[in-house]
Amino acid sequence: MNNQKNYSRIKSHPRILFTQQEIEEVGNGPKIDTFLEKADQFLNEDEFQVSYPMIDFQLNVSLPLIQLEPLPEAHGYIDFPYWTMYSRAIEDRMTVLSIAYALTGKGIYGDKVKEYLLALSRFTRWYEFPNRGAEGNLSNAHFTLAMAIGYDSIVHLLNGLEKELIQEAIVEKGLKPLVIDFENYDSHNIIASKRVSMLIGALSVIGERDVDKYLTNAYDYLFSYLEDRLTSPEIEGLLYTGVAIRHVLMAADALYRTTGDNTLISHPYFKSFLPDLFFYMLGSAEKQTFVNFSDSFYILDVSFLMGKLAQRNKHPVTSWYFKRAKTNSQNILLSMDNMVKPMSPNEFYQGENSKVFPTIGWAAFRSGWEGKSHFLAFASSSSAKGHNHYDQNNFVLHVNDEWLITNPGYQDYVEGPRNVFTLGTIGHNSMLVNGKGQEELGKSRIVDWFLSPSYDYCLGDATRAYNGAVKKWERKLLHIDQSYYILLDHVLKNYKEDQLTFLYHTTSMVVEDGKKLEINDTIKGNIVSIIGERASATIYHYYPEKTKKKLEQFLGAEEYGTYMTVEPAATNQDEIGITMIYPHSNKQLMDKKLVFESDVSRGEINLKIDRNKDFLTDYFLFAKEQDSSTITSNQGDLTITGDHAWVCFDNQLECPVKLFLFNGTELNFRSKRYITANKKLNVMVEMKQDSICYDIELRAETIIHISCERSSMIIVNGNRHDRKGKESGQIEIVLPIGRNVIVVIKED
């Protein structure tokens, strides 16, 4: 872009974290008292500690601050970044003390900030390794942010010489070393964080120093970064998404506050994509835990992010989250009075409970967010960054605020069994080939998907992640009636003798026929249950009927729980696996287990599931290959031309109540033709007492035919359809590309 940023109206200090008006709006209350307790702790300490749990080390930092001497290299690391956490601890202290001074006007807080400012100004550098400069480290960014925040907050307490010293340090030690990344537009979290510090550092001294080139470069990068986030396949988990974007949001907010430029803060990524990602990957409303794909954790501190989006962009669900979340030091400046009225995810998304994020290869199939809801997250991604894992076509399951089918989360970076388990395929709900996992990061994608309240579907292809170890691995994931899930795995092996192993991980109890399984127990049947503290899930291994199953634990990584291994016993080169997962919102299993039938013939896959408790029978028919041929179920009930279909049959009404066809042109059930088309479509049909609704997805203009009685009225996309003299039978309708809704209303 390189559009020189020259802002004519610059607001006076303070302007980075807050304005004087915002401080006056904070008011008083118990949160202020709690916040000031932390400020007093920072005010009165003579030293502080920085912990490094990954290397079992604690750094003692004496005050007043002096530059650290070189520290011994950590075992198993080269250039271990001690200064990252060290600089973050200093940034945290300077931020809290700056806000405390603004809130109270007490000089003791301002003097402590000044002490830190002058001490950091005397450092010879703000990066850790002299031979690397500002390349590849975060301490330069954290120190620059700390200095910018502190200077902006207490500038009127400084004399002329002190201002000169601090301004020069911000430019010479903070901004100039970051020039190394001027041409680097990589979206890595370190690069993004450094550009954030560049923009905020420049804003802190704009009008006092010549910083236009830093401001322009940082703005260009951050705008491009947000644009790229909408289309880029790269994601390193929600932890690093939150960390990187929190700083970008902080910079966007500072730019808006200082100059009135809202082009960053109001970007579509902040408006919709980011909130959607976090809320669809949220476990449920009560505990507020998140999917831990890649290097991430269940518990994330995203309260600042949510509060700021609620304040600036008026997103009602971010307001809902912020109201329920635990606060941190900076949230004292975020008041619910300045936020839009909270709205829960259930209210806001209005039945759109599931979502696919095709660019990053993630999907969320859920029944809701409240109470006893269930949620399965799936990943088949092309992202191959440093914090990604070998975990494609992997999934996790959350039921009633419990994670029942689990991932290890953040990898252990020290060589050994914990690293093998947390990084490798063995630690994820994926597949091994001859005992080995995926050899390539990423190289996977979600190929197809369809979402509706009754039928969610996606297809993940992880073939290339195995670097030639298999010819194909496609995993179909179905969510039926917001009740249960089906996994359909199609693997084309290189050799018949190749052994596949499917993995199911849990930190909960595993039970078969009422008996708790112990480590190394053989699983004899095809039905097992995972039972947590408040919820459970039953896993049905439908096909193949003969498999070797066992409950195992990885030696040296016992803290991550156990996992079931499922190995097909037959030596088929073309291997099909069918698994159903039924979530239960309580620990009590269903009185009657589901009755199922499955059959895999040469060209099609048949599956029948009796939901006797609901008096429903589900019929599924899948084509093994997407060749648009016509296939018929083994009992002749269901015939389709397409990829796959589902019919939900009501045994009390003795008729189908729901039908679905994916990537097809015709669906017939028990000799009745329900829909035909001249081009491929996806269609969900729901039959009610007085109407039939067709939810149709088209890739091109298409002619369809549906059955319609003489007395029925047809509504197409909200408009009454002209029958053109056709009274009954098959009615022809021409539909445009995109999503279309047809409602046939039965009239007496």
TrEMBL record:
Record Gene3D superfamilies: 2.70.98.70, Chondroitin AC/alginate lyase
InterPro entries: Chondroitin_lyas, Hepar_II_III_C, HepII_N
Top-rank lineage group of the source organism: Bacteria
Main location: other
Coiled coil region boundaries: none
Residues annotated as domain Heparinase II/III-like C-terminal: 351-519
Domain Heparinase II N-terminal: 11-221
Segments traversing the membrane: none
Entry-linked SUPFAM superfamilies: Chondroitin AC/alginate lyase
Location relative to the cell: Cell envelope
Protein name: Heparinase II/III family protein
Species whose genome carries this gene: Cytobacillus citreus
Classification lineage: Bacteria, Bacillati, Bacillota, Bacilli, Bacillales
